[in-house]
Amino acid sequence: MVLPNSLSSYYEKFLATGEVKCIDDEIPFEIPNGWEWERIGNIFNHTSGKQQSSSNKSGGTPQKFITTSNLYWGYFVLDNVKVMNFTEDEIKSCSATKGDLLVCEGGAGYGRSAIWNYDYDICLQNHVHRLRPLVDGICEYVFYFMYLQKESNNLASVGTAMPGLSANKLKSLLIPLPPTAVKNDITDILKKVFPIVEKYDKVQEKLNLLNSSLYDALKKSILQEAIQGRLVPQFVDEGTAQELLEQIRQEKQKLVKEGKLKKSALTDSVIYKGDDNKYFEKVGKTEQDITDEIPFEIPDDWKWCRIGSVLNIWSARRVHERDWRSSGIPFYRAREIGKMADWGHVDNDLFIEQSLYDEFSKSGVPQIGDLMMTAVGTLGKTYVVETNNPFYYKDGSVLCIGNPFRLNPYYLKLFFKSSAFANQYLSESDGTTVATLTMVRLNRYLIPVPPLKEQTRIVEKIKTVTSIMRE
């Protein structure tokens, strides 16, 4: 029982012990004269349903029961009601009868409430609270109170791993109770307003979805403009992609002479546009028409290339599960690379020993400016290596895209996020996905290459536009 005193402080008297305690810090606001603060547990009898488990198949009789998946704000969905055995005692203690207020305990819908107004009783699963009123005509008023509390984020139990509304939390909720006539007036008004609020919520949800869809579509459109050479202007003094490719060819020759690159790397494809506006690819002495592979036109100072002509694709050496450790050098699978691609970091709990890393690093490890790409699961998620912090990665599920010729790695990441890249591996799939991205596949995919300085300007423009969109 909550009692205000003459000094406008609030005290709670515990009838079982006679203890009186000041609860001013729990009172959220002042209420009019004639109103009272009360705990929900003092105006309802509370119980929960029965735990659902495979062991409940024997004992008692089969009874229909509802779960949180049947309970929504102000109504029930009963077309998927389940059946479980309940004993006679369980039916008495774990059932709702007409007029009971039912409340979801856990999950995303915790606090969701509805009044059971059917002419038959229904059994309950243990994640549904049953509030049976001790005060006539109180349920509708408390229902709207619960809705307000949920929308105000005042229901979640503190210190729990998952959001939820425990029995203790529910019973201890303080509710402002008006005189009966005022309560009835408030309830009548809310009955008229609530459908309007629900309608507005649904419209707002659709608007949020539309805004999100427009945002995503706009990002994709801007990205497409970028890789087609239409996002920033071209400047003659920045040179051409042809000149960039010639520099790469000369650097490859130098690396071959130094024994750092295989001679076969010099047998690159050369893609050019003929006088008849068709695209041809020359590899060694072989030449063929590849016009059907070219998805769109690019500026004259850009070039189409095979990815393997400008980047080095490789995978890791095999790390067995028995080599996994709880500390040491971080070891990334596709799921970690995906998180790195999205967030720039990952809370890694998988490692390999320093000695194994030292041995495998002799075969090469990612360098600053290289890119790591998911090759299984959600394909093509790309992380740019920005530091010298050592890590290793899983063969087969992650590919390292070596960038020895210093193309702008963030331009490359933009391209790998584009539909122009995705369409190439999706065209090789049976449906909407392909099992893996392999080194062979990735090497032969096409990429539009701008001059180096233009790559940087594209990246900066995308940053600016994205920042504006977020505002």
UniProtKB/TrEMBL annotation:
<dbReference type="GO" id="GO:0009307">
    <property type="term" value="P:DNA restriction-modification system"/>
</dbReference>
<comment type="similarity">
    <text>Belongs to the type-I restriction system S methylase family.</text>
</comment>
<keyword id="KW-0255">Endonuclease</keyword>
<dbReference type="InterPro" id="IPR044946">
    <property type="entry name" value="Restrct_endonuc_typeI_TRD_sf"/>
</dbReference>
<dbReference type="Pfam" id="PF01420">
    <property type="entry name" value="Methylase_S"/>
</dbReference>
<feature type="domain" description="Type I restriction modification DNA specificity">
    <location>
        <begin position="299"/>
        <end position="467"/>
    </location>
</feature>
<dbReference type="GO" id="GO:0016787">
    <property type="term" value="F:hydrolase activity"/>
</dbReference>
<dbReference type="InterPro" id="IPR000055">
    <property type="entry name" value="Restrct_endonuc_typeI_TRD"/>
</dbReference>
<dbReference type="GO" id="GO:0003677">
    <property type="term" value="F:DNA binding"/>
</dbReference>
<dbReference type="GO" id="GO:0004519">
    <property type="term" value="F:endonuclease activity"/>
</dbReference>
<keyword id="KW-0540">Nuclease</keyword>
<keyword id="KW-0680">Restriction system</keyword>
<dbReference type="InterPro" id="IPR051212">
    <property type="entry name" value="Type-I_RE_S_subunit"/>
</dbReference>
<feature type="domain" description="Type I restriction modification DNA specificity">
    <location>
        <begin position="32"/>
        <end position="195"/>
    </location>
</feature>
<protein>
    <submittedName>
        <fullName>Restriction endonuclease subunit S</fullName>
        <ecNumber>3.1.21.-</ecNumber>
    </submittedName>
</protein>
<keyword id="KW-0378">Hydrolase</keyword>
<keyword id="KW-0238">DNA-binding</keyword>
